[in-house]
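G., before I forget:
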Amino acid sequence: MFLSLLLKRRASKPVSIHEGLSDEELYHRFAQGEERAFRLLLDRHGDKVLGYLTRFFGDRELATDLTQDVFMRVISAARRFRGDSSFTTFLFRIVRNLCVDVMRARAARPDTHAASLDQGHDPDDRPLSETVPGREPDGEHRILSGELSQAIKEGLAGLPVEQREVFLMREVEGLKFGQIAEVLSVNENTVKSRMHYAVVSLRRTLTAFKEER
Amino acid sequence: MTREEASKRVLDYVYGEMSEDSRREFEDLLRDDAELRAEVESITEVRRVTADLEPVHLPQDVRKALIRAARRKIAVHEGQELDIRTMIERFFLSPAFSGALVVLVSLGVGLHLILETGLDDRITRLEKNERAAARGDVAPATPTPKKTKPAEEAEAKTEATAATVSTADLATDGSRAQDGPAEARAVFHKPLAKAPSKAGKARPKRHRSRKPSSYRRPAGPVAVVDMARQGVASGEAGGDSHKAPESVYNLGIKTSGKGGGGTVGSGRAAVPPAPDSTPAVASGFAEAPTPSGDRRPSAADGGLLTRGPVSGRKAAEHTRERKARKLSLETAAPPAAESMDEDRSDGDELRTRAALLEARKRRARGDLALALTAYQRALAGDLEGQDLRDALYEAADTARKLGRTDTARQFLERLSRLPGGAARGAEMMMELDAEAEK
């Protein structure tokens, strides 16, 4: 009996993890105690989460801290993950919840003009670039053809939060519209609508940048 | 696909979320519709510009910190598992546990083998004793103490007489011996096992307190075995060594002293009974006082035991026989590595049990004479409690069937003095009386 238990225990610990495993399988294996599975998940999603948060808040340091928080939550929630949704959806729910927390914390502070997710869906709402501090560029613009890069960042920061998060989820993380709808708990058409307005707004920014040139 | 539908699905087309058929339809429209084509191009340009933004990489220190956190979390989970199941598994699979298990098993097997071997030796000795007893010899396992010269003479004379000696005779002679010269003292082959039991008092435990050889039973009718034990019967017989009472078989009693008292060790003696030796018998069993002064129960008291049919008695005897055999095996102590005294006491106990066993066997077979001698030999030993009562009753019954009523009465008297034995003995005593009247 003891021997069978030992063999069973050892058999349940495969050493190698294939790169071809899905995110869900990796996360499940991490929950079972495989550190390497978490490393792979971090490799797959770490940069994307950081890129999303950096472009969402326009603040690299804040984005780094928040990325750390996101993955700490991923680590903590490993055993509670039931696999009802995809890992990406699960991850970006955490990301979005953190973003909402940060936005609300900023809104609660009287000395800052914090952006709020309650700003509504109207594209004519006051843009985030006018309210969220720390949106100044941090040197990335030097790589992306200087001023164009800056114009795009400003255009992103100027998008309403709902449009911005939809656009970033679609462009940076590569989530499909259905997944974005699942993360945001809204209709897929709403997602597409927000995406449409975001694209139109950014195109306007681009056009304006070209006209200025 | 209409133009309106196509304009709504521009995003699906640009982001590749359109089915193959829809994509073909959309591209057909796209070729003909310049406005739609411009919209697609503008979105594609936005995508391209956004994708060209500087790629962001997670700093290595953040990555390492996260991996450390993950490792800690795994360790905590494993620690939680350790509390419940893994700890038990690890304990049972640990080398220390395996080693301890092996040692314990080895010890157990070794002990079992040792005990088994010792038990075999005991059984062998027991069988030898039985065979020797059947031949009327002294058990070989018991070392015989050196005998004094007068004792040897007395023994020689005693052996020359009749084959058996009745318990009543021995008692009689023992009574006489009390009156004889007191210089000779009985030396017991082994210490006395116990004091005579009295009603209402618990007997001392076996091997715990042994009475000294100088112990004497209070006045009154005394069974020959007890007399012999006290050394009164033979040891103080003085010069009448030929009358020295002797335990029929192997009581291991030896006399010593000036008077040259008889030796009661082995052999047989037939001594004529003294008329005044058994007052209880002479005056009637029912009227004889018990040591505690109570009147013995009689048939009129309604205290007679009702015996079952013969088959039931045989079954009971068989059961007792089995019990005795089992007890004799259980009480077999490890052999001769200990001191001489322990060996003696163990040997005596074994002999007693063997004698009782043999007596029952012979009685069941119908060898009543040999059964009686075996009973006498057993009753000289350390029997007590129910075994003693049963042995006395059976011995009395055997003696009665042999026509030796005096011997039977002696046994019954002794039985009547035991707690719980009076009623049982009274029944047979009544029968004896009735036979005597006839």
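Confidence is low (pLDDT under 50) at residues 138-148, 158-205, 207-310, 333-338 of chain B. Chain B has four domains: 3-51, 60-90, 149-270, 281-437.

More on Monday.
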